[in-house]
Amino acid sequence: MHFYYLARDGERGICMQPILKTEDLTIRFGGQVAVDHVSCEIPEKHFKSIIGPNGAGKTTFFNLLSGELKPTEGEVYLRGEAITHLSSVDRARKGIGRSFQITNVFPNLTVLENVRLAIQSREKIYFQMIRFFSSYKHIIEEAEHILEQVLLIDKRDAIASKLSHGEKRKLEIAMLLALDSEILLLDEPTAGMSLEEVPVILDVIRSIKETGEKTILLIEHKMDLILDLSDSIMVLFNGQLLADGTPEEIMRNEMVENAYLGGLYRDDIAGNE
User: Fold this and answer.
1) Nearest to 61 by CA among 28, 85, 36, 35
2) Every domain of the chain and the residues it spans
3) Confidence (pLDDT) at 157
């Protein structure tokens, strides 16, 4: 099986089996359909953004990918293997790393300790975690390298609870990298940030993309923030997949323009407050 995609340089590329795929993914809560038969394919080492207004089903879709929720119908595939039945823990072990809109770090530990614990979890080093951790020199070195990558090395000894919101989001991304997650699911990483913090977190995400080592799915409702980062964009509206294509294709899509760029949702997508 293979499919085509249009690279950002205009060249038409070919991918074999997608790393992540959904088929008719659907979930109902009572009489409400939150995600409605969404089918998509994500190539390996691809950056796909998912946009849509509040209530479009973006976070619910992420929960279905990560295993936090089980679908009413439909399937999720990782490298061609059905993983719909797997728990979120088992999916994480297979390389799907999920961030949350509310930061998910250990507040009473230092920044370095948070990242170190994530590395130890990955390497199954659960014993003697605090007393003898200084002997794990390679773990400390890897943790410091990751903190440099996310521009947080100057906060290595800070208590996580004392970090700013933007710094906590960087730490959360660092922990995903420490777990060596192959696929990063980033749920509105700029939410709640100050104007000064937004460009910094976007630079961190861009640097991860430029390593060429990760497949990244990112939820955002302000299109202007992710246009130059994204290889492709999928648009959710009322739980349905409205459009999926390159940023240029999405900007030219009449249905997207009618549903979002004009009228009620102009501010949500364009980023105008």
Assistant:
1) 35
2) 1-94+221-268
3) 97
Does the pLDDT of residue 150 top 60, yes or no? yes
- DSSP type of residue 264: G
**What pTM was estimated for this model as a whole?**
0.84
Q: Token pair for residue 66?
A: 């990560």
* Runs of H (alpha helix) within the chain: 58-66, 88-93, 111-123, 137-149, 165-178, 197-210, 223-226, 247-252, 254-256, 266-270
- pLDDT tens-place string over residues 30-89: 989 999 999 999 999 999 999 988 888 999 999 999 999 999 999 999 999 999 999 999
Q: What does residue 185 show for φ and ψ, rounded to 5 degrees? A: -105, 105
Contact assessment for residue 192 and residue 102, using Cβ atoms and an 8 Å cutoff: no
- As to burial, measured by CB atoms within 10 angstroms (0-12 exposed, 13-18 middle, 19+ buried), residue 121 is middle
3-state class of 74 per DSSP? strand
Residue with tokens 């861009």: 206
Reported as a single tens digit per residue, the pLDDT across 193-229 is 888 999 999 999 999 999 999 999 999 878 888 999 9
Sheet of 81-82: strand order equals 32-42, 20-29, 73-78, 81-82
Q: Would you say domain 1-94+221-268 falls under CATH 2.40.30.100?
A: no
pLDDT tens digits along 11-36: 444 555 799 999 999 999 998 999 99
Degrees, nearest 5: CA angle 162-166-167: 50
- Residue 91: its pLDDT value, please? 94
Task: Round to whole Å and give the CA distance between 75 and 77.
Answer: 7
In angstroms, rounded to a whole number, what is the distance separating the alpha carbons of residues 114 and 132? 16
